[in-house]
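Suppose a classmate hands you a notebook page containing two proteins, each written out with its sequence and a corresponding row of structure tokens. How would you begin to make sense of it? This section walks through that situation. The first entry is reproduced here exactly as it would appear on such a page.
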Amino acid sequence: MKNAGIKIFSSVVFLLLVSCSDSFDGKNGIKTVKFPGTDKICQTIEYKDGKKNGTLKEYFENGNLKTTQQFKDDKNVDTALYYHINGNLAAIQIHHDGYKSGCWKKFNEQGKLYSEMSFKKGLIDSVALTYTYKTLRLIERFNFKSGSKHGKQEAFYNSGKPKSVEYYNDDRLCLGTQEWLETGELLNNDFSIKYIEQNKVNIENTLYYIVSLENPNPDDEVFRVSDKDTGNVVSQMSRLEKKGDNFVLQFSVYEGGFVMEKVKLAAYRKTRLGNTFIKTISFNASANHF
């Protein structure tokens, strides 16, 4: 009887210890969240010293797993998995030392891949591919380098036909934007840039250039850009002041001084498909105040 009592006592202590290990005291243990008004578990989170340490799990109301994530000191670590309500995998997200890392993928409800990109130290550093959700036709192929758009950026219609091409250099839009209708017709986004010199050096100590764009749009912008760039790269230097539909470039030329500079301007215009087309023009600005 004595041995039996000891065994019963030991079993009770063991059960109490197990139940306590699943409790949450505000800083340590497993915190359980339930759907309002039910006993169905919505989320469980492991805590240590008041921070998420361990596994986080979320569930759909039907009991199927929604996500499982790993934490260390409140930071995502390792691989996080997300699921559709039907149980199929919805996404894979990888973290390392709190940063996005590795190849991230998304899947449709049938479990078919429709998006993927890769990260290094939290920054996209790969080709990012996006497909239509159901038909899985390629609709975006964007190139990234250390988190910045870099290189050729392509968009496609849901039919798979080309929609647009843009070029970037370290997140800077470059020359060469092209767009197509779904019929295959190339859109003409070109426009002309004109400038008129207004020499008011002797009166106002200023040389003006009034810059006008063909068929002006309200969101047009004009910048003075570097004339040292090569290829299709455009480096902005300063934005020109807009007055009405025109833009103004001015140089201060005080008595006894002069200006003699090569000027390169770039006009930025939104296209009908929502991209941006760049047009450039170069000329020599010169005046003296002797």
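The notebook's second entry, a different protein, reads as follows.
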Amino acid sequence: MFIINNQTKNKGVINMNNLKKVGLSALAGSLVAFSASAAEFSVTGSASLTYDNPERGNSGGAINGNPFSMGNSLGFNASGETDGGLGVAVYYELDDDVMDDYDMTISGDFGSVKFHGSGGSTAFGAVDDVTPNAYEEAWDIIDTDGTATAGSPTVIGGGSGANMFVYTSPDFGGASLKAAWVPSSNTDGGDSYTDFAIAISPEAVEGLTLGYAVSNNTVLTNKDLDKTTMYVKYAISGFTVGVQSSESDHSTASNDQESMAYGITYAVNDDFTIGYSAHTVEFDSAAGSNSDQDSTGISASYTMGGMTLAGAMNEVDNMDGAATGDHEGYEFNLKFAF
């Protein structure tokens, strides 16, 4: 029988000081086995000035009295590698004095798994409209109520939510897979959200990219919502052209949507690029009263050293299917990277 007594050193007695030393030695050995090399830290940001004028369309006038704004975001990055070759990275963004987006990534030969504590895009959301443009999509910029939600054009996009997992596979001969999962507590209908996206850039056809994405979740009143999108882009001699088709199938047939997008950009030289894009959404209304939402936009960007000047002028007719929802807007941005 052993007697635990850290003051006694007789034979057959356990010495607590020795136990502490053994425990600490074992812990230190474990930490060494999984220790990471010295982490690399960096801070990213830019000096950014934006002129934004999303006009009210039929009612006229701009939303904000002062259309100028300044960028206020800083990104903090840290990364390292364990002795076993496992990469670990973490990112925090301070936006307007608030911890806005933050995530951590674990990577290796298997690809990478990123956990978005806040912010981030799902696999489908990252490719909801990849048609070429020089600044923003044809449906962007328009924001009639300043919320960037109800006052903006309809887009068939991916889901979102905090505490989201995103897996990205390694490149397999020009093909890559991405998958996202958002736990049930962060989705509208209570069920978990999942989506998948695959992109293929055939090595035999330089400049060609093909893509497909699908998502599934339950929204409000336990209705199934399935979305799909497919696209093709091709770049040659300064031109990049693309077309994309998307569908949103809802359990309620009258809530189905279809969209088609086109885009083309031309790199005049290494610094100056111009573009034109268009986007149309068809609403499957039981009453047949919804008009097609048509968006068009022209954009341009110019880069010189660390400075980029870019902007776009967009129009949308029948926003959200309303025959009187005609709006236009324009935005210009001057950015200095550091």
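A careful reader of the second entry would note: The chain has one domain: 44-337.
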